[in-house]
Design brief:
The chain folds into three domains: 194 residues, Cupin (Jelly Rolls, Sandwich); 53 residues, no CATH class; 87 residues, 3-Layer(aba) Sandwich (Malonyl-Coenzyme A Acyl Carrier Protein, domain 2). 25% of the residues lie in helices and 25% in strands. Helix 4 crosses helix 6. The chain is α+β, with helices and mostly antiparallel strands. The two termini are 18 Å apart. The protein has ten helices and 19 strands. The protein has an eight-stranded antiparallel beta sheet, covered by helices on one side. A three-stranded antiparallel beta sheet has the order 10-7-12, with no helix packed on it. Its cofactor is Fe(2+). GO terms for molecular function: 2-oxoglutarate-dependent dioxygenase activity; metal ion binding. InterPro entries: JmjC_dom, NO66-like, ROXA-like_wH. This is 50S ribosomal protein L16 arginine hydroxylase. One of its GO terms (cellular component) is ribosome.
């Protein structure tokens, strides 16, 4: 079980979205949750996003998986990267557990880097918060101030910048953590064979929110209403858009955007979607109602698919949002929102009186048969 060796609340007050910091021995006696061979195996799977970055004689190159073999890859100036490894490996899910006190709607994934000596991806800027945990080996990290930086190596497929002056220049050893807020340039260079784990938190951009809201409105055929003005008057300035009409159009648009039900459904569905493939397997054969009832009666454990987001709004526990889908809970089962969304697993005892609610059991049956929750091994 992984346990942070620092106060996360104090960290949030001092550093979150403010400044980068190195936390020495953020994990005491750190042990890698995955081996290099296991990581290489993940990079061979088609469903998993992976890439191999090399920098031989100053020539940067990025190759994308899945990979069939690593025999021809160099043992220096190279790095294997696997995204969302927590979706596919239980050890990485466990590594992310200490950070679960941070909002799940912001959590993106656990990315792993297996780096050979002098391996890295060059100087670059990310637009998300990241905790880089050093596993085996050592890596030197440099972090600069926020600012405007010129892009570099456009042909490499890597979003690099030309360089920066460091405000942090430190060597990370096993258990050390480097936190980098969005917009701070950074570069890691491997000293000896190294494993590092990036716990990433990504907030949506205004562009993304506006785009997905428009998609939601169109998909659900909302706002199919024309501008209406029964008090229109003649005017000599026929090319003018009067302020009153401009404001009326804006009011029409804002009325749609600010509709509480529309806003809640769209935001819940949008924020609960995963950016990465999930290890979801429909139950085969499907659960039968009596099987699930007995499972609950026996107080067995149902576990949520790793990396899948289940969310609810603070002021409305009647609807949960699971993997981009709004799901209405049966009447009287609002407590199930916190159970399903706040916990990674639950038992029949956790359900309490809700365990005898046929409508809730029918909902759980559907969620289990879709593969969203499954029996804990």
């Amino acid at each position: 079980m992984y346990q942070l060796n620092f106060d996360l609340n104090e960290f949030l007050t001092t550093y979150w979205h403010k400044q980068p910091v190195v936390i020495k021995k953020g994990f005491v006696d750190f042990e890698d949750p995955i081996s290099p061979d296991e990581l290489a195996g993940l990079a061979m799977e088609e469903e998993i996003d992976s890439r191999f970055v090399t920098n031989l004689d100053g020539n940067w190159k990025a190759q994308h998986g899945p990979f069939e073999s690593f025999d021809e890859f160099p043992d220096t100036h190279s790095q294997l990267i696997v995204q969302a490894a927590n979706h596919w490996h239980p050890g990485l899910r466990e590594l992310a557990q200490p950070f679960r006190v941070l909002p799940n709607w912001l959590f993106d994934d656990v990315m792993i880097c297996l780096s050979m000596p002098n391996g890295g991806v060059g100087p670059h800027i990310d637009q998300y918060d990241v905790f880089i945990i050093q596993g085996m080996g050592k890596r030197r990290w440099r972090v600069g101030e926020k600012g405007e930086y010129k892009d570099a190596n456009h042909d490499s497929g890597l979003r690099q910048i030309e360089g920066f002056d460091p405000i942090i220049d430190d060597v990370l050893e096993p258990g050390d953590i480097l936190y980098i807020p969005p917009g701070f340039p950074h570069e890691g260079n491997t000293i000896d064979v190294s494993m590092s784990y990036s716990i990433g938190y990504r907030s949506p951009k205004k562009q993304e929110l506006l785009s997905t809201l428009a998609d939601y409105v169109l998909t659900n055929e909302l706002g199919d209403v024309h501008f209406y003005d029964p008090n229109l008057q003649t005017r000599d300035e026929h090319g003018m858009i009067p302020t009153s009409e401009s404001e009326a159009l804006n009011d029409m648009l804002m009325k749609l955007i600010n509709d509480p039900k529309i806003k809640a459904r769209w935001l819940g569905e949008q924020l609960s979607q995963s950016r990465h493939e999930l290890d979801i397997m429909a139950a085969e054969p499907p659960w039968q109602a009596d099987e699930l009832f007995q499972f609950v009666e026996d107080n067995m454990v149902l576990e949520k698919v790793s990396g899948m987001k289940a969310l609810y709004h603070e002021n409305d526990l009647s609807v949960i949002y699971v993997n981009g889908e709004a799901i209405e809970l049966p009447e009287g089962c609002e407590a199930a929102a916190r159970l399903l969304c706040d916990q990674e697993a639950f038992t029949g005892e956790d359900l309490g009186e809700m365990a005898s609610n046929p409508a809730l059991l029918a909902l759980l049956l559907d969620l289990c048969n879709q593969g969203y929750w499954y029996p804990q091994a």
